[in-house]
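Posted in: Protein Modeling Q&A

I'm a second-year student putting together a small comparison for a lab meeting, and my supervisor asked me to include a predicted structure for Oxidoreductase, short chain dehydrogenase/reductase family protein. I've never done this before, so apologies if this is the wrong subforum. The sequence is pasted below exactly as I got it from our records. If anyone can share the structure token output, I'd also love a short note on what stands out.
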Amino acid sequence: MTLKNQETTKKENIILTGGSGGLGRAIVKSLLSEGYSVTNLDIQSPKEIFSGEFFLNVDLTNEQDLTYTLSRWENLVSSQSQSPYGFVHCAGYGGPYHKITDVSLEEWDRIFSVNIRSAFQIVKLILPKFKKLQLGRLVFIASSLSIVGSANSVAYSASKHSLIGFVKSLSDEWGPFGITSNAVSPGYIETSMGIQEDQVPDHRNKIIQMTPMRKIASTYEIARVVSFLLNKESSYINGANWTVDGGITAI
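Accepted answer (user: helix_wrangler)
Welcome! Here is the predicted structure, written out as tokens:
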């Protein structure tokens, strides 16, 4: 586990998983622009660490590594005289595009480990801290496949449906303490897990034509919704799954 950071005077810290990927970087930038500091938990180092960002290298599927890293995060926040304020679970793993009969148990477990178990482990630690403050924001990146199903993505879709149940139950359990829990469900995004500019044109065009907005979302468009749900002005939004997919699941 390694720690890298940039000096910051910001006082409210948001812990973020998967902050080194395409969507994660956009969320980091958006949160920094809102005045928060961000602790990025990822197995992959970002190409650049921004002012106000701390990076902790961690394997989210390794329980001991994650537990140790979370203790380092606690010490980090304390040493910087910052207050834990929010959590964004952006890390995600889709696995291979296979029929369920071709998915191994190991692959199934890895998908659930990244997409839901690591979120549980982090939330279990940070919720008591938020309870003391009577304030906290939890945001989980789900997917349009948390709303609908899809052939050849059974494990991934099941993990994202599970995440929504997790969010709804958290909202009831921790809402009385001023802690909100919400999900954001993107459709196709311009990222390595979504769809990229250099992918087969026919496939891109098919996706675009399926989407009422006739475009693929930018990471910025998703990140701004995440930032809003973390804002104190969103204090009465709780237990919701915000669909940000250009209308693809509405038709």
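A couple of things worth pointing out for your meeting: Strands lie at 3-5, 12-17, 37-42, 53-57, 83-89, 136-141, 179-186, 241-244. The first helix runs from residue 22 to 33.
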